[in-house]
Amino acid sequence: MLFGASPAGTSSNPQPSLTSLSPTSATAGAAAQTLIINGTKFLSTSTVTYNKAAHTATYVSSTQLKITLSTSDQATAGTYAVVVTNPTPGGGASNSMIFTVDNSKPTITSLSPTSATAGAAAQTLIIDGTKFLSTSTVTYNKTAHTATYVSSTQLKIALSTSDQATAGTYAVVVTNPTPGGGASNSMIFTVDNSKPTITSLSPTSATAGAAAQTLIIDGTKFLSTSTVTYNKTAHTATYVSSTQLKIALSTSDQATAGTYAVVVTNPTPGGGASNSMIFTVDNSKPTITSLSPTSAVAGAAAQTLTINGTNFLSTSTVFYGEVLHTATLVSSTQLTITLSASNQALGGNYKVEVVNPRPGGGASNLVNFAVDNLAPTITSLSPTSAVAGAAAQTLTINGTNFLSTSTVSYHGVLHTPALVSSTQLKITQSTSDLATAGNYPVVVTNPWPGGGASKVNFVVTGPLAVLSPTSFTFASQPATTSSSPEHFTLSNTGNDTLTIASIGFSGTNAGDFIQNTTCVATLAANTTCTIAVVFTPPASGGRSGTLVVTDNSGNVAGTTQSSTLTGTGLHDVVLAWTASPTNGVSGYDIFRGTTSGGESTAPLNSSRVNATSYVDTNVAAGTTYYYVVTAVASNGTTQSSGSNEASATVPSP
Question: Which of 281, 212, 197, 305 is nearest to 250 (CA)?
Fold first, then answer.
């Protein structure tokens, strides 16, 4: 037998060939299924291996075999060789054909958390889904992150601070490896911008019309991409730091008073608008510099009042006498209002005030507009006179321009008037108002502003005696000697003849005084007479009395006028001596004592006596005094021996 040849009469099995598989693949974890193997030269005795493991083959035909793939055959992804082998003789293994068990494509259903705020701390991101593998990989923002396999439905990755440093939307993708496998759907993880907060503005306000200036906005979580609105209008922001932004306020931003919202907005994702912080543009406070006219007369017709000043607005209001008046704006320095006749009906000072509305604004200084009262005029009185001592009565005052605020004085004393009309007032004259004769002024006064006074005399008829002076002190008078006469004047200031009943003296020492008068029994109205009074004290010491005139002053018989009289009676010791014959005498000293030979060593006189007489006035009644005189030399110190002693006794009163 030749090597390799078949025995005589024996045929060889053919070598099979595979042309296709059906199906050609399955997904890992697939259910058991039939695998159809197509090819040529299959035998009923052909065997099949799948992944080198024998599988029972079902012969269909020389071109088709079938085997069963169990779940375990398809449990793990991979490429598995299918081979058909025909038995000897001949026969042999077919070509290898690959059956692929593919990995599943993963799906992400959710992320936890779904977002973070820019700058967040490192954290774990949980990825929930399906068909995850222990070999699954994860990318975050296209960057691979080590995945921790929890289960086929959950993976975890670590997000670092840098992963969350910048706001944005970041794709998370899970990828299963080949065979099969592939990238999951993309699930977005959002890193949000923080929402900003404004804590303060600097400055917080401006006055309407202010120049352009920088507004500093302090707060938190500001970004270089933050935007700012002022009064809902975008303003270019200058980024200083995460806690400060700046914008420029133009003159037009500050032209009109109001409250303007400042808002900072951070862009998406996240971000959003901050709280609103108010910047106030204040109205200026107005000032009144002058009024035109400055005054009117009570009862004037309606007229326009021009108010000059500064910072006036179209919304300024004007108060006149605390009553709101409609203002017409002429310019920022002038307003006008209408003063009605009733606004000027009564005299007084009426305050004019301009008020600018809030914000800011406020009340101006107060300027007075004077409504002047007219001066009153008295044209007549009714009655015009009364007799002294008359009963109380009503006095009617007729005239012009009388007011409810007019005052009336009678003889300088205010009397409550009753206003009958602008041409008539009435007052009550009491019995005391009419008790004494005289001309008494009746004065009607209208109050300030303006106003003035009018006077007419009311006559109370009758005599009126006045004695002057009402008291008198005579010079000290040596006892038993008479003074020079002192003159007292009796006047009749009334308007009728005064009847004089008597002139005399009363009091403790009435007899010390005597009088001589030019007064007679009657004294005509508005005339005078004189009473001469002499003081003759009979003794030393204080003396007093009263000069009394009894008459019918005020038409009342027995009325008295009096003057209090006082004086002092003196007892003096008068010394006289002959001059010293010695040359060079400069003067004399007097020495006094109350016992003989008991004269004092000090002179009685306070200064040198140059005469040859001396009056000792400092004496007491009932006392005996002893005197000695010495001559003093021209040197002022040397004295002569004393003169002979003289004595004198002062009488008792």
Answer: 212
| Torsion (CA) 357, 361, 365, 370 in degrees, nearest 10 | -20
User: Which structure tokens are listed for 580?
Assistant: 């010293």
User: Omega into 485 within 30° of 0, i.e. cis?
Assistant: no
Domains of the chain are: 17-102 (2.60.40.10), 107-192 (2.60.40.10), 197-282 (2.60.40.10), 287-372 (2.60.40.10), 377-461 (2.60.40.10), 465-570 (2.60.40.10), 573-649 (2.60.40.10)
pLDDT tens-digit series, residues 300-317: 999 999 999 999 999 999
Token pair for residue 591?
Answer: 């020495």
Burial pattern 585-606, b for ≥16 Cβ within 10 A else e, equals eebbbbbbbeeeeebeeebbbe
In angstroms, the CA 216 to CA 204 distance is 9
Nearest to 255 by CA among 217, 220, 281: 281
**Rounded distance, CA 30 to CA 48, Å?**
21
pTM: 0.53
647 phi and psi, to 5 degrees?
-130, 160
Token reading at 167: 């706001």
Q: Which helix (H) or strand (E) holds 618?
A: none
Q: What is the pLDDT of residues 222-281, one digit of tens each?
A: 999 999 999 999 999 999 999 999 999 999 999 999 999 999 999 999 999 999 999 999
Q: Say if CB 512 and CB 567 are below 8 A apart.
A: yes
